[in-house]
Structures are given as C-alpha cells and as structure tokens.
Amino acid sequence: MKPLSPAAHRGWCARAAFTMVELMVVIGIVAMFLGFISFMPREANRSSAVRSAAMELAATIRQARALAMDRRAIYGLSFNIECAPGSSGRILNNFSGQHWYQILGPSIMNFDMNTNGLPMCPYPEAWWNNGVVNNVTAWINEVNKGWSGERHYLPAHQVRFLALADQDVGGMVSSGAWQGQLNTFANTYPRPWYGYWDPAAKRLYPWGGYDTNLVDSNGRKSSAFYYEGNDGTILNCENSASRSTTFGTPVPLYAAGTPRPIINGNWEDVLLLFNPDGTVIESLFYARWQCLNNANGGGGGAGPFGDLGDRSATEQYVYSPSYYPMTNLTGAYVFTLAPDADQDTDQFSTAQAAWNSIMPAFRVSVNSLGLVAVEQVEPSAPAGTVFDTTITNWNDDTQTTVYYKNNRLTNSDGTPRGNPVMDFLTPDMLANRQWWTK
Asked: Quick check: 401 and 356 in contact, CB under 8 A?
C-alpha cells in the first residue's frame, strides 16, 4: 500500500476534522432528544397515575350507589387524608400512603329514626339523637365494623388528594357565620381547591394546609379544618397529646406521637351518603359537630374540650347544604386528585413552579342524583373567560362582607354574582387568587 502524499494527507485530515465536528453536533442533538423523551414519560406517567386513581374513585362511587339501590339501604363512602409523620402538614402529601377511601355498609345497630327504618351506615346524628352512645369510642367501634369491601389507597409518592371540596375557608371569624354569611376571613383564606400562591412570600397555601402561625379569632390554628383543637401545637403531623373520651368511663381515642389525619376517615369527616333511590348527599365533619353540639346543651354527651368537639369546623359546616363548600352552587360534590408532592415544601420561586407541583390534576364529581363524572383540569382558561375582580383583597372585610354572602360571590344586594372556576387552572390564577368568573 502506497503511503499518502503530503497533499493527500492534509486533505484526509481536513475531512476527518470536519467529521468530528459533525459527530459533536449529532451527539448534542441525541442528548437533547434523550432529555426530551426522558421528560415525556415522567409527565405521561404522572398523568396516567392520577387519571387511573380518579377512574378508580369514580368506579367506587358508582359501586356504593349500586349497593344502596340494590340492597335498599343507606351506604357511605368515607375519605382519609394523612400526611406522613415527620412532615410539616403545610402541603398535603401522600408519602406514607394514607390517602384512602372506603365504603361503609349498614350498621349492625341501626338507630336512625329518620329513614323509615332503612338500614344505614353508622351515622353520627342517628347515634347522638337517640342517646345510645356513652362515648365516642362506641360509635367509632361501630364504624370499624361497618367497612365494606377493600380500602382504596392512593399510590404513595404518586397520587394525593389535593382537595375534597371546592374551597377551604379556614377558621371563620364572622359573627354571622351561623347564619351562613361566611364573609370574614383570616389571612390567606378563602383558598380555592387549588390553593393560593403568595407572590411576596413565594409560598403556596393549599386547601387543607396546616400552619401554626395562622390563628383565628378564638386563638385556634385556623387551617386544616381545626386540625389542632386543644391538644397543643401539632408538629410533624403527629398527635401532640393523648386523648380519651370525656363522657362515662374514659376510653382512649388516640395516643401522643401517633399520626394525626387532617381528614379522618374513621371519624367520617368527609362522608358521601348513598340513598336507595340513587340520590347522594354529603356530610362534613358531622361527628365533630355533634360532639360540640351535645357539649353545648344539645343532648349531653362529649365535653367541649375532649372527644372530637373542639376539633369541629362548626362555623363552616352545619345542617343546611347551603353551608357546604359551593355544592349548592355547583350542584356536585367534587374531589380533586393530583400528583403527590415531590418534597415537603410550600416554597416555590414562581407561580409556574407552584402550578407544576399540582398538575396534571383530575376532578371526580358526583351530583345529588348520583351521576358521576371524571374531568381533567385544563391548563388554560377557555376562550373569552373574564375573571371577576369585585373583591381585590380577600382579607378586607369591608369588601367580603358586602360581596361574599352565603358562601358565594354576590352583588351588594346579596344576589348571586359570577361562577367559581371548576375545571381549569393557570399560574396566574394561583398568584392572583382568581377563582370566580363573570
């Protein structure tokens, strides 16, 4: 083989150098492509996991309704939200896999006198009104006997409940709260189902989040539906004290250092009730409210600072459906599911980052007739959407007392105004606390 001439050698080197440049370009393109496709599966997996969990919840709601209609009995579906022990509670997380729901079948001991003798799941009003419970533990034990079928757990580190209602109003401070005014709010409240990102604090205040620095007019921590009560400051999402029943022989309810659910499924904090005619109603914190009601002269029972009474969201949720979070307006009970939190933090540098932490989200709704729907939360507002800016500061009661009555946006004369956002979310909505449209 003849050696290359000097000229040919120079030409070969030039071609080789050019080929190396091309190779580097190709490597760069391949790296970008691999990064892109590695991102896509993560987003696709997040969406798939949340969608699957939403479809499973919808199927379970339909199952509970079918059981009630087939067996001529009143069934329930109870929800539980527990943040992992050791976490702050400021952001709902499912790190320990204790976001769950389960069907409740008819009670063995049926004391309800308002259902024409129909079998019914253990329901607080029935038990307290008939004076058959000497302490809350007896009722809780009956609940434990009533579980039906499997307990459905949202996959840990994958999916969480973002909200179980359309708004969180915290600790109401309005003297008119019992009359349904719901118009004087503590700082950062009301919070829509997707929360509120504060541009100044760079902080996301979610539905149900717990913050020891937020105190209502009664001196209680005003967030997470009176998650704290009178047990003392809750740290690390664990019970800060042990508690026993206060009526009759004391019986332990829970122990210090054990996990403390924000929404307690064993107490029926959030409960759907399915009637034999297919209709559905929702009960919120009713056991806690009954404890407080009995302690205040409504039939004896639990003491005001023991049992569940001091952890009652009384001002928010009472008998009339008009007090429930916007269900009188939307016509449905809505449960929001989202990807689990990546870490236990409420700090996000931008509204976009906060938005990324809760999307893609899906909402499962059931109306009063029992019709169920699953809907993905859209990442943009529909064309032509105009947000209502009547209330510029939700913590200014000179505005809210005029324009927010009976748990909804109103005109100054009290007539309804606008509609709450149900099925879309943008970063700007998080930062501006925009959740009503014209």
From this structure: no
